[in-house]
Amino acid sequence: MLTAVAASDTLHPVDDDQLLGELEPYATQLLERHLETAREWFPHEMVPWSQGRDFAEDETFDPDASELSPGARSALLLNLLTEDNLPHYYRSISARFGCDDVWGQWSRRWTAEEGRHSIVIRDYLAVTRSIDMRELERSRMVQVSGGVVPDPPGIADGIVYVAMQELATRISHRNTGKLLPDECGQAIMSRVAADENLHHLFYRDLASAALEVDPSGTVEAIDRQVRDFAMPGVGVPDFDKHARLIADAGVYDFTLHHDQILVPMLFRHWRIDKLKNLTATAEQARDRVLHHVERIGRVVQRMQARVAAPRPAAAV
Ligand SMILES: [Fe+2]
Ligand SMILES: [Fe+2]
Fold this sequence. Notes:
Blueprint lengths: L15 H22 L5 H4 L23 H15 L1 H12 L3 H28 L4 H14 L8 H25 L3 H31 L1 H14 L10 H10 L5 H16 L10 H29 L8
Helix pairs in contact: 1-5, 1-8, 3-5, 3-7, 3-10, 4-5, 5-8, 7-8, 7-9, 7-11, 8-9, 9-12, 11-12
One fe (ii) ion (FE2) binds next to helix 5.
């Protein structure tokens, strides 16, 4: 459990340095909890090496030789390229949070864990020949050379964004695993998803602490980040095509985003509808974001009703 630190006067603006300083004890406790909970694992022990063979230099990828659906393939490609973009995530997080004290300890540990994800997913894909490895490598070069990562405008925004993104990544990895035809692939994706869950818990609870320290500033950050949220991977070639295939395959879509991210985080964990003593600007931000989530909920209901409705004979 977190122990409370003295909260700032909630009606006065808290700048980024103050917020970082006040959040430091929370971050220390959350890092300790993470280190106690995280389980050591080894990428090389999860990869089915016996299925592997050498690649010819001019070998072309044959999608029919793989059992993977196009949706699963796109999900793995986007998942892996996002993990590959790690140097830029590290750069962005270090620039914002600094490299010292608990912030540096956390971001270095987080980087080491994320690096493990790209190692295991790439080895699995290469060994099982599930993906066009040349396309993957070319896309990695484009993406990492481009260096595009989301850049939230402050500490509270950064924490809120990563809390949502880690949960979105956990959901996406877990659902991708369900589409894989072999137990090794399923185990890899659920192992990686378990790590993402711990990352999510760190940032989710750090955001809860930020709501105690600076409720108004954090609510404004939640409003901005919820309304602007985009999954990482925007710099990936053919991102829109892959995102569509992923949504069609049920790996990550609007409904999941509403039901498994927005509703639990905003209402169950952060309870932003119950917060008191907000500034007038934060009250407006809260109204705006609640209205936004409500609107998404209505769209999701309409989509579900359309799917459930019997189709007229002519349409069939
Ligand atoms: Fe990861
Ligand atoms: Fe993560």
